[in-house]
Design goal:
alpha+beta, YerB-like fold, ten-stranded mixed beta sheet, five-stranded antiparallel beta sheet, 26 strands, 28% strand
C-alpha cells in the first residue's frame, strides 16, 4: 500500500509539473505573440554608434579577409579579436528599412517561405568602427546555416528560434547535430534574451506585428561570444579562421556595359523583386527592393554592393503547414557574377556543408571579386535575370 501511495504521489507531481510548464509556456506565447506590451522594450540606442579612438581619416591599408575592402589598422586590431557574426535578418515589407545591412561584409538572400526573402548577414570588418543596431532578427533555416558554416570554426549563428518540424527542414535539430549547441556558437534569442535582444514595436514610426520587432547590436552579440569564450580563438586556443578559405579579390577594372540587373524571386511577388543599378561614379551597385530604393535605417543610406553574385539552384517545397523550403547548397550550378558594370557567366561549386562556395568561370578558374561588399542572390534555377 505504501509503495502504491508513493507511486501515485510521483504521478501526481509529474502531472502538476507538466501543467505548470504548459501554463507557463502558454503565458509566454500570449505575452510575446498576442498581447502587445503597454511599454515596448526599447534598446539604449544612444550606446550605439561610432567607436571612440577610431580615426576615420587614418590610411586604409588593411584588407578585410571576407570581402577584400580596405580598412584602417585600428579597425583590423578590433576585428582580429573576434569571429564573424552571421545573423538572420528578415525582408518582409513590414521589416524595411532594416538596420545594419549597409555595414555588412557579405549578404546572402533567398526565399524563406511564401515568396518572402530573408538575409543571412555576415558582420566582421564593417562593424569594427562602430556598434551597429541590427535587425529585425528572424528564425533559422537549414540552407542559410549551410552558408554560415563557411565562416570558419564555430561560426556565430544568430537567430530567433527556427524551423523545427521533424525532417530535412528541421533547423533546430540540425543545430544540435552540428554541435553548435554544445560548442556555444548557436545564438538563439530564446536562450539569450534581454538585454542582448529586445523588441521595439515603434522602430519605423508605426506599430508592426511582433515577429518584425526583434533587434540587437553587434557589440552586444560579440559580448555574448566573449562570455562564452568564443572570441578569435576558442577555449582550446583554436583560431576561427584556421580552415577558412577567403575568396580572391582584385581592384575594379574598366566599366562594362551592364547598367542594371533585375529579377524576381517568385513570379507574382513584386514587393520582393530586386533591381541593382550600377553607379559608375562610385563604382558600386545600388539596390532597389519592391520598386523602391532599399535603405538602412541606421544611416538612411541606399544599400550598395561591389559584387552581385546571382546563384541559381534547385528549390523544393516540403508542402508542410509552415511552407518550408529547401535549396541545394552543395554540388554546383549556374552563376552570374556582376562587377564594375560587367558580367561573367560561370558556375558556383560547394563540395560539402563546411566548404567555401567557389565562383568559377567556364574554364574552371576561380573568379576574382572586386574588393568591397558582396551580395549573393540565390534564385530558383530557370529564373529570368534581366541585364
Amino acid at each position: 500500500m505504501r509503495q502504491l501511495v508513493t507511486a501515485q504521489n510521483v504521478r501526481i507531481s509529474i502531472t502538476l509539473l507538466g501543467l505548470y510548464l504548459l501554463s507557463a509556456g502558454i503565458s509566454w506565447l500570449v505575452f510575446f505573440f498576442v498581447v502587445k506590451p503597454s511599454v515596448p522594450l526599447i534598446s539604449p540606442i544612444g550606446l550605439t554608434g561610432k567607436r571612440a579612438g577610431i580615426d576615420p581619416n587614418a590610411p586604409k591599408t588593411e584588407s578585410c579577409p571576407l570581402n577584400g575592402k580596405k580598412y584602417t589598422k585600428q579597425e583590423r586590431e578590433i576585428w582580429e579579436q573576434r569571429r564573424p557574426l552571421t545573423v538572420m535578418i528578415e525582408n518582409h515589407d513590414e521589416a524595411r528599412p532594416q538596420s545594419g545591412l549597409y555595414n555588412a561584409d557579405v549578404v546572402y538572400e533567398a526565399v524563406a517561405e511564401g515568396g518572402i526573402t530573408r538575409f543571412l548577414v555576415v558582420f566582421y570588418c564593417g562593424a569594427s568602427a562602430e556598434e551597429l543596431t541590427i535587425g529585425p532578427v528572424r528564425s533559422a533555416r537549414v540552407y542559410f546555416m549551410d552558408w554560415a558554416s563557411e565562416y570558419g570554426d564555430k561560426p556565430l549563428y544568430v537567430h530567433v528560434g527556427g524551423a523545427n518540424r521533424p525532417g530535412p527542414a528541421d533547423a533546430l535539430g540540425l543545430i544540435a547535430r552540428y554541435g553548435w549547441l554544445s560548442d556555444g556558437n548557436d545564438f538563439n534569442q530564446f536562450a539569450i534574451g534581454f538585454p542582448a535582444f529586445w523588441r521595439d514595436y515603434e522602430r519605423i514610426g508605426h506599430p508592426v506585428a511582433t515577429e518584425h520587432t526583434m533587434y540587437s547590436t553587434t557589440d552586444k552579440l560579440w559580448q555574448v561570444a566573449q562570455e562564452r569564450k568564443l572570441e578569435a580563438k576558442d577555449e582550446s586556443g583554436v583560431l576561427w579562421n584556421k580552415e577558412f578559405v577567403p575568396w580572391k579579390f582584385k581592384e575594379p577594372g574598366a566599366t562594362g556595359s551592364v547598367a542594371s540587373i533585375s529579377f524576381p524571386f517568385w513570379s507574382g511577388y513584386e514587393q520582393y523583386s530586386v533591381r541593382w543599378t550600377y553607379d559608375g561614379a562610385s563604382g558600386v551597385w545600388k539596390r532597389e527592393n519592391g520598386g523602391r530604393s532599399h535603405t538602412d535605417l541606421n544611416n538612411n543610406q541606399q544599400l550598395t554592393a561591389a559584387n552581385v553574385v546571382v546563384l541559381f539552384t534547385s528549390e523544393r517545397s516540403l508542402g508542410d503547414v509552415e511552407k518550408h523550403l529547401l535549396y541545394q547548397t552543395t554540388g554546383s550550378g549556374k552563376a552570374l557574377i556582376f562587377q564594375t558594370g560587367s558580367v561573367v557567366e560561370g558556375i558556383w561549386k560547394k563540395q560539402e556543408r563546411t566548404s567555401r562556395t567557389q565562383f568559377l568561370d567556364k574554364t574552371g578558374k576561380e573568379i576574382s571579386l572586386v574588393a568591397g561588399p558582396i551580395w549573393i542572390e540565390v534564385l530558383p534555377a530557370g529564373t529570368e535575370v534581366t541585364y
